[in-house]
Design brief:
Radius of gyration: 19 Å
Distance between the termini: 54 Å
Bound molecules: S-adenosylmethionine
Oligomer: single chain
Largest sheet: 7 strands, mixed
């Protein structure tokens, strides 16, 4: 008889489930999306990514890097392509486990290139469909000598915390081809916040009408493979894993990385917007809707934090 104990379930490889989920996600047009209750949250997330990416590009370019190369680890359908274009980078490598998403990302890039002005130089790009928690990306690069100024891993790293091996391979892919002084930036759910809310709940889940986070048990939380299910209005429903941040930070040291920033979304927002920086971009991206976004969306974003590691010289 098959052993279906929770321990066995945790040992199951969830990569396929994650890839299938993202491969079958429908491309929703902006009109339909704008009616969605998560519209403002998506815009808020996009704004945060734009600011983080913009600031890192400024640092890298300010330090003298002219031909900036970027690795977008877990690029999805290419939601950040325009941010890289705006940042004037020279080379982008996009990698994701969901091959359908990678194809859509490539199509978006080709469209962007086709529609650009003759005098605008759009970055070169390579698209790789691969499980970045299992496969070595450096072996798949068209240019085997390519080194990156930035690796951006937005809302992705937590999928790798299924096992130490996977988390390490994802980190290796993120960091081993970074130039000294380069940056690894990303966004991932805040494990402390998730556990705090779970412990405060009288069941194994918490959330509201917009999102739901469900665990299989509570009280003990393994360092790796601590699985939960995240459901966001039927748009996302995938197994994810808690990222124990001190361990993540420690593991990154193996790749000569030093943590330079870790902030919860709310802190990042307070710092940028209350100081009136980036306000106009946010207002544009929020389609001129005032902040705060809808309650559900806001609560979901409060569960999230951003990080930035720098590669030591
Ligand atoms: N970074 C994109 C963004 O910000 O719009 C997409 C984020 S989406 C929430 C998470 C992405 O991580 C999905 O596209 C998924 O396929 C990808 N992903 C999950 N596990 C992965 C793995 N092991 N290797 C590569 N990509 C993975």
């Amino acid at each position: 008889e098959e052993d279906v104990s929770p321990a066995k379930k945790l040992r199951t490889d969830h990569s396929k489930e994650v890839a299938t989920h993202y491969n079958t996600l429908q491309e929703v047009g902006l009109a339909a999306r704008s009616q969605s209750r998560i519209f403002y949250m998506r815009n808020f997330n996009n704004w945060l990514k734009s600011v983080l990416i913009g600031e890192i590009l400024e640092k890298v370019q300010g330090a003298g890097s002219r031909d900036v190369s970027v690795l977008d680890l877990g690029c999805g359908k290419g939601g950040d392509l325009l941010k890289w274009r705006r940042g004037g980078i020279s080379h982008l490598v996009c990698a994701d486990i969901a091959e359908v998403s990678v194809e859509q990302c490539q199509t978006r890039y080709e469209d962007m290139k086709r529609r650009s002005h003759a005098n605008e130089k759009i970055f070169r790009a390579q698209f790789i469909a691969a499980d970045c928690s299992k496969e070595l990306l450096s072996e798949k690069l068209d240019d085997p000598k390519l080194m990156f100024d930035i690796c951006s891993c937005q809302f992705v790293y937590h999928y790798s915390f299924e096992s130490e091996q996977k988390a390490d391979m994802m980190l290796r892919n993120a960091c081993e081809r970074l130039k000294p002084g380069g940056f690894f930036i990303g966004t991932t759910p805040d494990a402390y916040e998730l556990v705090k809310r779970l412990e405060a709940s009288d069941s194994l889940s918490f959330g509201n009408e917009v999102f739901k986070v469900s665990f299989e048990s509570k009280g003990s939380y393994p360092l790796f493979g601590c699985q939960y299910h995240f459901n966001l209005e039927g748009v996302v429903d995938v197994p994810e894993f808690l990222v124990y941040f001190p361990l993540f930070e420690h593991m990154a040291k193996r790749y000569n990385m030093r943590l330079v920033l870790k902030q919860r979304f709310s802190e990042f927002f307070d710092e940028k917007v209350k100081k009136d920086q980036h306000r106009s971009l946010m207002m544009k991206m929020m389609a001129l809707e005032p902040f705060p976004c809808e309650a559900g969306g806001q609560q979901a974003t409060e569960n999230t934090e951003q990080y930035c590691h720098a590669k030591e010289h």
